[in-house]
Amino acid sequence: MKKKNFVSLILGTIGGLLFAIGMCMCLLPRWNAFSQGVGIGAVGAVFLIVMLLVRRKMEGKPAIRLSGKAVGTAALGVAGALGLGIGMCLVMVWDRMIPGILIGIVGILLLTTLSPLCRGLTE
Fold first, then answer.
1. Is the dihedral of CA 63, 66, 18, 105 positive or negative?
2. Mind giving me the DSSP string for 44-60?
3. Is 40 helix (H, G, I), strand (E, B) or coil?
């Protein structure tokens, strides 16, 4: 295993776990840990951003170039993730099954469009 892959694996695992635990703390009212969940989720998001920057540095690429496509792609990803998350909240927290499923499907469709947008369509 190459060093850059190992570093990405470790940072991605730590960031993903912290982010997931933070979101669980926010979404499960029985835990009564919303504020702490936001903090832990934010720390996980910081780990994931650091992983992105470290990975690009190890590959010898510039940090991140902002272009219209990059900003649009990021906005589409955020909109899709929010749609999926709002749909899950509607179903799991507020017992609104049908609207939650419909909003979640819209979020999934938005996230599905990211792959052809980033990679393009090939034969």
1. negative
2. HHHHHHHHHHHHHHHTT
3. helix
DSSP string, 62-117: -S----HHHHHHHHHHHHHHHHHHHHHHHHHTS--HHHHHHHHHHHHHHHHTHHHH
Q: What is the rounded distance in angstroms from the CA atom of residue 20 to the CA atom of residue 39?
A: 12
The predicted pLDDT at position 123 comes to: 60
- Which amino acid is it at 72? G
Burial of 47 (0-12, 13-18, 19+ CB in 10 A): buried
Q: What is the pLDDT of residues 53-78, one digit of tens each?
A: 888 888 888 877 788 888 999 999 99
